[in-house]
Automatic annotation (TrEMBL):
GO CC aspect terms: cytoplasm
Organism the protein comes from: Linum trigynum
Name of the top EC class for this enzyme: transferase
Signal peptide stretch: none
Residue ranges annotated for the GST N-terminal domain, each copy included: 3-82
GO molecular function: glutathione transferase activity
Catalysed reaction, written as an equation: RX + glutathione = an S-substituted glutathione + a halide anion + H(+)
Protein name as catalogued: glutathione transferase
EC number(s) recorded for this UniProt protein: 2.5.1.18
PROSITE patterns: GST_CTER (PS50405), GST_NTER (PS50404)
GO biological process: glutathione metabolic process
Keywords: Transferase
Alphabetized InterPro entries for the sequence: Glutathione-S-Trfase_C-like, Glutathione-S-Trfase_C_sf, Glutathione_S-Trfase, Glutathione_S-Trfase_N, GST_C, GST_C_Tau, Omega/Tau-like, Thioredoxin-like_sf
GST C-terminal domain mapped to chain residues: 88-216
Amino acid sequence: MADEVILLDKWVSPFGMRVRIALAEKGIKYEYRDEDLRNKGELLLKMNPVHKKIPVLIHNGKPVCESNIIVQYVDEVWHDKAPLLPSDPYLRAQARFWADFVDKKIYDTGRKLWTTKGDEQKSATEEFIGYLKTLEAELGDKPYYGGEKMNYVDVTMIPFYSWFHTYEASGNFSIESHCPKLMAWAKRCMQHESVSKTLPEPEKNYEFVLQMKKRLGIE
């Protein structure tokens, strides 16, 4: 019997994008359901009753929640194609460390860039650039975080590239001028069909944020 795979997601979510990239890298066919996060569907609430958040991967009726856990699950279940996590335990631990760094630093600080003003925004911008420089230093001269091929860290980080325009426009700075190697890496990742077909146009994300700001009363 063929696997039944359903992904509950939201097009603009960098967390959902990682799962879509991982599934594309593995060549897995799945049903995509874009959720209305202001009016959450019954299936989402049933499949993720704890956090009530996307993304949720439903594999043969069983839910897997939290994007990095989903990507690891996808890599383990469909391990025969395009491995994302290294086989060496130490390298695997390092990949998980950097994926965790992305989760803890990039999303929250990036969000502050478009939800704050003045000194708070300036401080968030400096902090954000610092985190990007740390990631750039870890990349070094490698084409990808995985070396010659994309791996778990690349899949975790690349969705935020679609948000770079929003961050730059909000904080009035250029990521490329601060982190040229990181931008070159992002453009390299975009040459992969799994990435280019997943990431929305940066302007589309920015329009979404402008609507969100209006709704939240942030001007």
